[in-house]
Structures are given as structure tokens and as C-alpha cells.
TrEMBL record:
Residues 1-28 form the signal peptide. The keyword Signal applies. This is SbsC C-terminal domain-containing protein. It comes from the Bacteria. Coiled coil: none annotated. Residues 63-184 form the SbsC C-terminal domain. The keyword Protease does not apply. Keywords: Signal. It comes from Psychrobacillus glaciei.
Length: 377
């Protein structure tokens, strides 16, 4: 009986001492704090190596398989910090050891394991699905979806992919970039010109529908330059060239008319400048297409005004080939010109406040018909 009591007492004492040995109060006395630090450092090293070493063999470790490692590392790191804080070490020693373990944790986990997992998640959950979406759309010849995917991909590559560079471990980083970012860059570069051409086509159609002829002409010129840079071997070259041909067939006539109008406007501007430099009794101006304003400075007869060179300069300066269907120097043209003015109008002063439209055919590289209005004030 006494022997049993002795054994029981001894076991209780041993159990009590074990519990005491692992309690925070006794930690610094019974178990070396340095041993604990070395132990957690070893674990942190192993945690980081779990994603680094496989990449040396060309394998990326899925982030899902690293969460248990991360949680264990966090837990034991925090436990070791608590042990240091509750130990009997001096305040200076505690600060030194805490700085040491914090620095090591920051290197292996905060700058290694965690950002690797973030980078892997980004690559597999954002970049990879986006690439698949674009490739699927290409297989279906769904260019509108390809364009939308291209814009999303461009945004990701410009503003988001810095996450792929934030973790330590060059081999792992290079492999992740090789597998996910490099193909994304290549796809973006491949699509950049075709998508730009497509967007320019959309803009051009919108401008044409809005009746903005000058903007259409400018957009078409830009589109032509872009097409020159698109290799015929590009998978989108055929469809894009065909679409441009369709658009060109629609806008060709308005574009030709616009070019002719621009050429004629330029001739009118040159004519105004030439007359203003040589005539003293009038000043010409033109603020709108197909019109001319004559400001009378010194009153002269209409006949004198026409015979002093205004009419012949007008004919030659604007390349007029016909007036109201007649040769501009023919008798029929002259009679039509006289008939345009009222019989009682003798001088330019009599024409003030009046406008006279003349049907002209001019040579702008081709025959261009226009109603040209001359106003007097």
C-alpha cells in the first residue's frame, strides 16, 4: 500500500514538473530560447523551399498545396515570439531576438512564400482564364470577343502583372513568367495591330453615319497606313482587308467629293489672296465653301470691274471650265452673266446687299460641279 502511494506521488510530481517545464513562465529556464528560434527558422526555411526547389526541375507548386505550410509557419512564428516575450531574457536581448526572427520571417514568408502564392493565384485565376477566353473566341472567329479580351489583357499586363515580380526566388519567378506572362505578352503583341485596325473601322463607320466627311477622310487615311503595316500572313489580315474594302465601297463617292471640295476651297483661297494683292477698289473674303464676298471700297461700273481682270482671273484661278454649262469665254456665258444682274444696276454700289449664284464646272483633277455664290457688301 505504501509502495503504491509512493509511486502515485512520484508520478504526480513528474507530471507537474513536465507541465511546468512547458509553461510560458518556465520557458526561458527549461528550454533554450535560441533552440526555439533555430527551430522556427528551420521551419521557415523549409516553407520557402517548398515553392523554390521544385521550380529548379521546371515545376510550379500550386498555391493550394502551400496553405497548410503557411498556416503552420505563421502559428509557430507567433508562438516563438510569444515565448521570447515571456522569457526571463533582458529587454535588450528580447528586442534583439525579436528583430532577428521578424527579419527572417519577413524574408522567407512576407517576401517569399506569401507573394509567391499571390502571384500564382493571379496567374492561374486571372491571366490564364483570360488567355483561354481569347483563344476560344479566335477559334470561333468571334472577333468582337477577341477585341474585348485584348483590352482586358492589355489592362492586366499594364497595371496588374507587377504582382508576378514581388516574391524572392529567381527560378520560381522566371518559370512563372515564362509559363503565364510571356504567352500573354505575345498574344497582346499579336493582336495589337489587328485590334487597332478594327477599332479604327468602327470609328470610321460612326463618323460616316454622322455625316462628318472631313473626319472620315482623315480616319480613312490613318486606316490605310495601319493596313500597310499588317502582314498578309496575319490570321486577321484577310477578314480585315475584306471589311475595309466594303467600307471603302460605301464611302468612296463622298470621299472623292470631299477631296474635290477641299481642292476647290484651296483654289478659292489662292484667288482671294491674289486679287486682294492687286485690286484697290475691292476686298475679297471667303469664309464658307463655294462662296465669295466682295467688299466694295471704291465704286466703279460693273463693266469696268469685270473688264479690269476680275473675271478672267476668276476663270483661270479657279480653273473654271463652264459657267451654266457654257464655255466661260463664250458669248452665251457672257449673256448669262449680264442677265444675272438687274438692268438698272450700273455700278458695284448697286449690287451691295445682293448675292448671285453661278453654276460652275471646275477642274480639280476631275470635273467638279458647284453652285458658286458671289455676294456684295
Amino acid at each position: 500500500m505504501k509502495k503504491n502511494l509512493v509511486k502515485t506521488a512520484a508520478a504526480a510530481a513528474l507530471l507537474s514538473s513536465s507541465i511546468l517545464a512547458f509553461s510560458p513562465i518556465a520557458y526561458g529556464k527549461t528550454i533554450s530560447v535560441d533552440q526555439s528560434i533555430n527551430s522556427v527558422k528551420s521551419e521557415l526555411n523549409k516553407a520557402a523551399s517548398q515553392y523554390v526547389y521544385p521550380t529548379l526541375e521546371g515545376k510550379l507548386v500550386p498555391s493550394e498545396s502551400l496553405y497548410a505550410t503557411l498556416n503552420s509557419a505563421k502559428k509557430n512564428y507567433q508562438a516563438t515570439r510569444n515565448a521570447i516575450v515571456s522569457s526571463t531574457l533582458s529587454a535588450k536581448e528580447k528586442e534583439s531576438k525579436l528583430n532577428d526572427i521578424d527579419s527572417f520571417y519577413n524574408e522567407k514568408v512576407s517576401k517569399g512564400l506569401v507573394p509567391y502564392m499571390d502571384a500564382y493565384n493571379y496567374a492561374t485565376k486571372y491571366l490564364d482564364p483570360l488567355m483561354k477566353e481569347i483563344n476560344d473566341a479566335e477559334a470561333k472567329n468571334d472577333f468582337a470577343t477577341v477585341v474585348a479580351g485584348y483590352h482586358q489583357l492589355s489592362y492586366q499586363l499594364k497595371d496588374r502583372t507587377s504582382i508576378l515580380y514581388r516574391f524572392s526566388g529567381k527560378a520560381a519567378r522566371d518559370l512563372l513568367l515564362e509559363k503565364y506572362k510571356k504567352p500573354a505578352d505575345a498574344k497582346r503583341n499579336e493582336l495589337e495591330l489587328p485590334v487597332t485596325i478594327y477599332m479604327k473601322l468602327v470609328d470610321l463607320k460612326g463618323l460616316y453615319a454622322a455625316g462628318k466627311s472631313e473626319e472620315v477622310l482623315k480616319a480613312y487615311a490613318e486606316l490605310t497606313i495601319l493596313l500597310e503595316g499588317l502582314p498578309k500572313t496575319n490570321k486577321y489580315a484577310g477578314p480585315l482587308f475584306a471589311e475595309v474594302a466594303k467600307v471603302k465601297a460605301i464611302i468612296d463617292a463622298p470621299l472623292v467629293a470631299l477631296k474635290e471640295q477641299q481642292t476647290f476651297d484651296s483654289k478659292v483661297a489662292d484667288f482671294v489672296e491674289k486679287v486682294n494683292a492687286s485690286q484697290k477698289n475691292i476686298t475679297l473674303s471667303s469664309t464658307a465653301s463655294n462662296s465669295l464676298v466682295v467688299t466694295v471700297k471704291e465704286d466703279v461700273s460693273i463693266l469696268e470691274f469685270l473688264s479690269q481682270g476680275f473675271y478672267t482671273t476668276l476663270i483661270s484661278g479657279l480653273n473654271v471650265t463652264k459657267i451654266n454649262g457654257n464655255d466661260p469665254l463664250s458669248e452665251a456665258a457672257m449673256n448669262g452673266l449680264k442677265a444675272a444682274f438687274s438692268a438698272d444696276a450700273k455700278t458695284l454700289a448697286d449690287l451691295k446687299g445682293k448675292s448671285f449664284p453661278f453654276p460652275l464646272t471646275v477642274n480639280t483633277g476631275s470635273e467638279f460641279d458647284v453652285i458658286f455664290t458671289i455676294a456684295f457688301n
